[in-house]
Amino acid sequence: MKKILAVAAVVAAVVLAGCQENAKQPDGAQSGAGVKLPPEVAGIWQEEVDEGIPWALLVTEDGQLEEARLALAAAIVRPGETTQTKMRDGQYSTFETGPATVTYDPETRELTVAFDLKHFQVLYGEERIEGSARYAFTGPVSEDGRHWNTVFAEQFDYGPRFPQDPNGIGVPMSFRKLKSSN
């Protein structure tokens, strides 16, 4: 388990540093457009939470992040697109998503999904949160393809009201499979 967490922390650090294209992949790892995920790895993964809005990630067999539901405002975003989400008070919040990276190592079953919010603006009542963020989820998928225990890394700039928590990098986060891709 310590080895998995150490590898996950290194992968998350590389992704957060913006060097995912140049990072040396472990032997057998696949990344980019050519990655093929087994059916038990591809599908909809939802964060296991007791309260609040859970993250959800839809990963396809061809190694793409098709969409993500953010815990922030329950927005559903797609890589490379701008999304508007209607808030409870009727206002619209905007999310501009950058490209996503999916990496998978069939030997270790290690799955990494990372993407950027290039810019977002959340409006609710008189409140406004604006900024950018980079998210990475890294960890092994269970043999039966039902659980994915990740280390969640987040790097963000939400403005001076919401400073980055230095302890927010490397947080354990568990996902369960809601639906397979097939």
Structure description:
Strand 7 and strand 8 form a beta hairpin. The chain has one helix spanning 2-16; strands at 30-31, 43-47, 56-59, 65-69, 76-77, 82-86, 92-105, 110-124, 127-140, 147-157, 171-180. Strands 1, 2, 3, 4, 5, 6, 7, 8, 9, 10 and 11 form an eleven-stranded antiparallel beta sheet that branches. The protein has one domain (2-180). The chain has 182 residues and is mainly beta. The chain contains one helix and eleven strands.
Supply the key terms.
disordered N terminus, 11 strands, 182 residues, mainly beta
- SSE order: HEEEEEEEEEEE
- Beta-strand content: over 45%
The proportion of residues forming helix, as a percent range, comes to: under 10%
Query: Overall pLDDT, averaged?
Result: 83
| Low-pLDDT residue spans | 1-28
Separation, N- and C-terminal Cα atoms:
30 Å
Global morphology: globular
Determine the structural class based on helices, strands and strand pairing.
Answer: mainly beta
